[in-house]
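ok, trying the design again with the full structure, not the truncated one.
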């Protein structure tokens, strides 16, 4: 049985998730440039997503 392939995805608030590579992305999410097994994708997210707060909370209001 082949291992499932996943994509790392990110929304406009710079929040990360994984998504099955064989499914269309939901509205508001884009590929974040990494694909692999579920475990590889989760490890990648652990490396790049260092501040869990949404972008709108991290950035000062204009």
């Amino acid at each position: 049985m082949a291992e499932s392939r996943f994509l790392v995805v990110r929304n406009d608030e710079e929040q990360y998730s994984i998504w099955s590579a064989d499914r269309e992305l939901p509205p508001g999410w884009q590929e974040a440039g990494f694909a692999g097994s579920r475990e590889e994708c989760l490890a990648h997210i652990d490396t790049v997503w260092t501040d869990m707060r949404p972008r709108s909370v991290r950035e000062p209001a204009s």
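Keeping the full-length input from now on. The chain is about 25% helix and 30% strand.
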